[in-house]
Amino acid sequence: MIAVAANVGTLCASIVNGTCGENLTWSLNTKDSTFTINGSGAMYNYDQQGQDVPWGEYKSYIAHIVMPDGLTSIGDFAFYDCSALTSVTIPNSVIRIGIRTFANSGLTSLTLPNSVTNIGNLAFSGCDNLSSFVYNLHVFAHMPRSYSGAYTIPEGIESIAGGAFQSCHSLTSVTIPSSVTSIGGGAFYGCSYLTSIEFPNSVTSIEHEMFYKCTYLTSVTIPNSVTSIGDRAFQYCTHLTSITIPNSVTSIGRKAFSNCTRLTSVAIGNNVTSIGKLYESDDNSYTAFESTNVNEIHFTGNLSEWIAKPWHPSLISSAYDLYIGEDKLTNLIIADGTVTISSEAFHGCTSLSAVTIPTGVKIIEENAFSGCSSIQAITSYDQRPPTVKEGALDGIAYSTIVYVPEEYLNTYIVHDVWGLFDVRPLDKHSAIEGIEGENIKPINKFLRDGQVLILRGDKTYTLIGQEVK
Predict the structure, then answer these.
(1) Which of 52, 79, 182, 451 has the most other CB atoms within 10 Å of its CB?
(2) Which pTM value belongs to this model?
(3) Which neighbouring-strand residues pair with 66?
(4) How many domains does the chain have?
(5) Which of 127, 142, 157 lies at the terminal end of a domain, its last residue?
(6) Is residue 27 left, alpha or beta, with left meaning phi > 0 and alpha meaning psi from -120 to 50?
(7) Quick check: is 127 in a domain?
(8) What is the CATH number of the domain that holds 90?
(9) 458 belongs to a structural domain
(10) How high is the pLDDT of residue 313?
(11) Dist. CA 37–CA 42, nearest whole Å
(12) What is the DSSP letter of 286?
């Protein structure tokens, strides 16, 4: 609902008033600091951190709020930053409390009626004086910031409001009952001593910033019911060493695991189709695992599924070993029928030592094998060398041997990219390697009388290793 500016009028020197909903009015007595709402229905929602609320210039006067039976929703940002506010009585007619409704207020206590089933993100964020637990039969809304130790959320609670445990620095563990089906964004934001969390199978998403800066979080079990992981969900969880993303997950948000500096192993389910980018227009700005030390990626699908993914680990900054299922990928055999090897498909994969490319592969996309520094041999069967896009083979040593059928040898040798490598005929693997004990990259290939010759140092050889005098 779009906020509508109230027509504020002065009844006398100490009272201001206006409208705050289609059927709601408000008045503030600045002498006794009481803010009164009259009427029924939902309040307007406000934005810009409450700067557009019609009583904005009088916020500092509000200490007590009186709400009528018949009020159904307390608007977004309605009492944001009301630092003098200490008490409010919420009637049983209220169903919803909006986004940041009481954030940064001076509330010291609050009773939440059982009628409330929907609480917006960060509704009580920054209420440092609110020293009581705030929850009802349906929603857990607030834990006192001073709480220390482990905590078990009462059975029957259906949702945890966004920011409910925010900045509870001494909270060490939380038990979430199976009755909980949703947890709001930033629910455990800044719980720096929270060490482990286990979600029930009833939870379907991990919202944005849910564990942001939970620096001592070491163990997370994500159930198969979860389908999405939000932006910055685990960013700066600096003690997290491994994470398993189950097959149920289809999307991972921007910076979801960024700056998890001890994170070394990631298992990714085969149904992940989307990994957040810093800028949606930039195909190379994946940031989900930015600034980590991931050196192992375990993919639960098969090799063809991995190659077909629209994302790949340009999202990590370090070299890594790739596991397909239980097997470490060292000898890559591209499946028959493959036409394109996708961008970044094996970027930085240092476990690879050999690659076989079947007939029919036409294009190797940008950075597909960039940084694969352990590759020693590539075998390509197509008579036409696959088109190599920018950076596709960067970081592979020119001493790498490229084996091709003998009848296609010249085509590869004179190719502007493939010709940079040590191209050899498939049926004569050792012909050149055995020349006088040398195993040196051909530094010059040239045509003489229609024949391709190789210059090594001060000697010239044919393609099958015969020295030409």
Answers:
(1) 79
(2) 0.81
(3) 36, 89
(4) 2
(5) 142
(6) beta
(7) yes
(8) 3.80.10.10
(9) no
(10) 54
(11) 11
(12) B
Residue 268 CA: distances (Å) to CA of 110, 223, 334, 366: 43, 13, 21, 22
The residue with tokens 């007619």 is 93
Q: Which residue positions in the chain have pLDDT lower than 70?
A: 1-13, 50, 277-286, 312-315, 317, 427-457, 461-466
Domain membership of residue 47 (yes or no) is: yes
What tokens appear for 133 in the block? Answer: 């637990």
User: What CATH number is given to the structural domain containing 376?
Assistant: 3.40.50.12480
Distance CA 182, CA 212 (A): 17
Q: How does DSSP assign 170-216, residue by residue?
A: EEEEEE--TT--EE-TTTTTT-TT--EEE--TT--EE-TTTTTT-TT
Strand partners, 296: 265, 321
Contacts of 12 (CB under 8 A, 6+ apart): none
| Predicted pLDDT of residue 307 | 85
Q: Which domain holds residue 391?
A: 330-441
Q: Which residue type sits at 450?
A: G
Edge-to-edge order in the sheet of strand 296-299: 242-245, 265-268, 296-299, 321-324, 327-328
Q: How far apart are CA 181 and CA 202, in angstroms?
A: 5
Say if residues 195 and 173 touch (Cβ distance below 8 Å).
yes
Instruction: Give the pLDDT confidence score for residue 193 in this predicted structure.
Output: 96
Say which DSSP state 151 is in: E
Characterise 192 by phi-psi region: left (phi > 0), alpha (psi -120 to 50), beta (else): alpha
